């Protein structure tokens, strides 16, 4: 079908994004393995059939990437993947993304909307083509990049469709990594370790937090990493409880601690870790805090294996921390969370964070990857852990020893 423009700047083109006359500007990445992608779509459609869904609408860049391989930053403008029960997926984007979609998603049909026009019009017209006779539309309504106002206008323009929330439709599949995904996560772990080593190497009395950040970023990209889903978090221990604050041009002072949390990113897969180091000398209580945090990490790793629940892992971590030779540590809301594909501003895979929390009932399955985090007052240590058939493997390996730099 040829492209044609509609009033309001909508371009409806239900042909595939790449044709015989198109020359993609870049080869597909390893994450765009066509066999694996086809299997993911088939699995999604099986779940759709079971749920009696005619089409699903997906807005999270992580989930769009998982199904199609689309890797760009254009999702700040409205982007929606429509997957019908039968036929090719349709991607709806801003018109200027046409070259990117042509290069990366030749297997998708592409519909665009012009700047200043309503993307809801484009989506509703596509839905009229995909499911003209009605049915149920599954919607990722909780997605960060699916504005409620646009969803409301889509709903108003498609009264012949039922609507159902399907935020959780892909959660289970994305939580368990394939062999290819695990290989990419291992590569990301190597990038994480390189970046952490570089940051620790330049940390010394008189250096600035920004010097550490510069070294981390240089090493991250020199090792082959991409822009991660979340900026490295580098701050003094005096600000440890300000959990998403990062570096400033402040000098590192003797007798203080420095917290570093970061993740390498390879083909959008992440492997976070964190370390706490001390500048010049150990502050009071640092050795005890380090011992408690390390005991907690060891206990959580030992507990993390198929067949247990997230709540059981948390209980083992909490017991180890509370039982260390140290003062009572403040209660912590989790000791880790699921990680995987990530786009700014997140490395947790899109959607709700699956945390290892008190009372959690999510079963642990081989192939999951967690940012396993042992956080106590005065010291934090964390690593990316892969759940293997008979236990957990820590993929990041930077030294966990008590570290003083001078």
Large-scale geometry = elongated
Total domains: 2
* Topology pattern, helix = H, strand = E: EEHEHEEHEHEHEHHHEEEHHEEEEE
How would you write the strand order of the largest sheet? Answer: 1-2-6-5-4-3-7-8
Q: What is the class of the largest domain in the CATH system?
A: Alpha Beta
The count of β-strands is: 16
Which parts are unreliable, with pLDDT below 50 for 5 consecutive residues or more? 1-5, 19-31
Strand portion, in percent? 15-25%
Q: Summed up, what is this model?
A:
By secondary structure, the protein is α+β, with helices and mostly antiparallel strands. The chain has helices at residues 34-50, 61-68, 98-104, 119-130, 148-157, 171-175, 179-202, 209-222, 286-303, 310-322, and strands at residues 4-6, 10-16, 55-58, 80-84, 90-94, 109-113, 135-139, 161-165, 233-236, 256-266, 269-279, 336-338, 369-376, 379-388, 391-394, 404-405. A hairpin with a 2-residue loop joins β14 (379-388) and β15.
